[in-house]
Specification:
alpha/beta; about 210 residues
């Protein structure tokens, strides 16, 4: 990753949870859906959720997501699809893949696919920062259930990654479990939560309403 030391600079970070995925079944089968789908994509509802957020960005001149300089994305398909709908497949803002912010890897739905398969599915992915260095099996390996149920080490490493970026406003497209550890809040599908990360201490705070 291309990182420049900007210790001391406050980062304003928008967490965006992916749209509803095929693994998020409702009803009596909901708790088993994660076992049935490996690296699932979005449902039609999930696509509409992402499109609604894109429409809001396009139509609201005061939407703070318009000022994002970098989009960081989990390499899981549901996050990639969401990011591509909201921000487009390429162009501005810059795009970056980072496996640190993938979901807690405790079910088949949280295991990813190899870069070559992702590239076939998502056009222009080879132009994203981080794609060329993405490992063949980039999702968490050789970790216990306990380590991945609460992957605080990954969260801490990801905060350090954000602190070292040169960009001041960053969007992260990712997952509920990881974001809950990072921000202390559960996000709904395509919900946006703005954080402030202190560049010196790494302290993470939820931004006050209306102050992204």
């Amino acid at each position: 990753f291309k990182m420049v030391e900007h210790v001391g600079q406050t980062k304003r970070v928008a967490l965006i949870r992916h749209g509803k995925g095929l693994h998020q079944a409702s009803g009596c089968c909901g708790c088993f859906a994660g076992l049935l789908h490996r690296d699932p994509k979005l449902t039609s509802k999930g696509q509409r959720e992402a499109q609604a957020l894109r429409k809001k960005i396009d139509e609201d001149p005061n939407e703070p997501l318009r000022e994002v300089e970098l989009v960081v994305c989990s390499p899981l398909s549901r996050a990639l699809e969401t990011a591509s709908i909201i921000f487009g497949a390429c162009g501005s803002p810059a795009r970056c893949l980072n496996p640190l912010c993938t979901e807690r890897c405790i079910m088949p739905c949280d295991k990813g696919r190899k870069p070559a398969l992702l590239e076939q599915e998502f056009k222009n992915l080879d132009g994203w920062e981080g794609f060329s260095t993405l490992g063949e099996e980039w999702w968490p390996q050789n970790r216990s259930f306990r380590q991945e149920w609460t992957p605080q080490d990954r969260v801490d490493d990801f905060v350090d990654f954000l602190r070292q970026r040169s960009e001041a406003r960053i969007a992260v497209v990712g997952h509920s479990g990881f974001f809950t550890l990072l921000a202390g809040r559960h996000l709904g599908n395509c919900e946006v939560l703005w954080l402030e990360i202190d560049g010196s201490s790494g302290n993470v705070q939820v931004s006050k309403p209306g102050v992204p």
